[in-house]
Write a structure and sequence with these properties.
It contains ten helices and eleven strands. With about 325 residues, it is α/β, with parallel strands linked by helices. It folds into two domains: about 140 residues, 3-Layer(aba) Sandwich (Rossmann fold), CATH 3.40.50; about 160 residues, Rossmann fold.
């Protein structure tokens, strides 16, 4: 696995590094930690309280910050190969270019951040990276102290599209601790609350079949890693943008996985528009999964539901 991490030295960025302990990453991989200095922007009025250092001074300070971050990462991912890079330019554009050039499987950025030295606004950076990246993006909200020593709790938003199937595939092939829990969330939208019973029953049966198939893939993936994993299921009448966020927060999830776009068998659940809203509003980390040219992943992921799949355990229908 190849990761690119956009780092700015802020507490939010440090929390994003800590969040990698809960990301189910493999034991070995290759990581590029990059720090971008915006050398052409003037400080915002009222924020800078001292003269802005020149580019050379800022880059020298960045080297010290990056060295400390590298030590932190080495303790979190001891078997990973770590490279560092300091560049000058637009943070979002630079991270996107570096990830494409480097063949990254995923970009990791903090959800927001601001350092007086760097003027590195991760909030706007994360939004652009999430929207424009050609690989998966993890917008990390480090809340390690809340989950320490607890099994992972993961929410997957699914709609039956290939992209949401890929989100399930990614979770199934990560390395989770024993006893991890996954909740599958599908929204049929508020308009369905007034549908005739027979119409909704047909759609509900389709969703249950889809959830059962996803649950089987998730359990099989966990079994291959030698751990157990619990899967539950929720069908919501809320707007999809709200349903995933609300379920994750009320259930105490530490990460949400969504496809980068959707519009699958449930045409009203369009994950393409949902993913950006979820990434912005969620209380926890959000991973937007994009399909990459990884060999044979479609053969590894069974995209059609089997009528013999056992049902996922119910987490409640709202």
């Amino acid at each position: 696995m190849r990761l690119v991490i956009g780092y700015d030295g802020s507490p939010c960025a440090d929390a994003a590094l800590d969040d990698l302990q809960r990301a189910g990453l493999p034991r070995e991989g290759h990581l590029l930690l990059t720090m971008v200095t915006e050398v052409w922007l003037s400080p915002l009025s009222g924020i800078a309280t001292e003269e802005t250092p020149d580019a050379a001074e800022r880059i020298a300070k960045n080297r010290q910050i990056l060295a400390r971050a590298t030590e932190r990462l080495a303790s979190i991912l001891p078997n990973w190969e770590i490279e560092t890079l300091i560049e000058a330019g637009s943070p979002a554009a630079t991270i996107l270019h570096r990830a494409a050039d480097w063949g990254a499987d995923m970009i990791v950025v903090g959800s927001h951040g601001f350092t007086r030295v760097e003027r590195f606004f991760i909030g706007s950076v994360s939004q652009r990276v999430a929207g424009d990246a050609h690989c998966s993006v993890r917008i990390a909200r480090g809340r390690l102290e809340e989950f320490e020593n607890l099994p992972s709790r993961l929410v997957i938003g699914i709609d039956g599209s290939i992209d949401s199937d890929m989100a399930t595939y990614v979770v199934a092939n990560r390395h989770w601790s024993n006893g991890a829990e996954v909740r599958l969330v599908t929204s049929v939208g508020p308009l369905h609350a007034g549908y005739p019973v027979t119409t909704f029953d047909e759609e509900k049966a389709l969703i249950e079949k889809m959830h059962a198939h996803a649950a089987r893939n998730l359990r099989d993936g966990a079994a291959q890693q030698g751990v157990s994993l619990t899967v539950s299921s929720v069908i919501s009448f809320e707007d999809p943008k709200q349903a995933i966020v609300h379920e994750a927060e009320s259930w105490g999830a530490d990460a949400i996985f969504v496809g980068s776009r959707g519009h699958g068998r449930l045409g009203r659940f369009v994950l393409g528009s949902v993913s950006a809203a979820v990434a912005t509003r969620a209380h926890c980390s959000v991973e937007i999964v994009r399909r990459t040219p990884t060999a044979n992943w479609e053969e590894s992921l069974e995209l059609s539901s089997s009528p013999n799949d056992p049902p996922a355990s119910s987490g409640g229908t709202i």
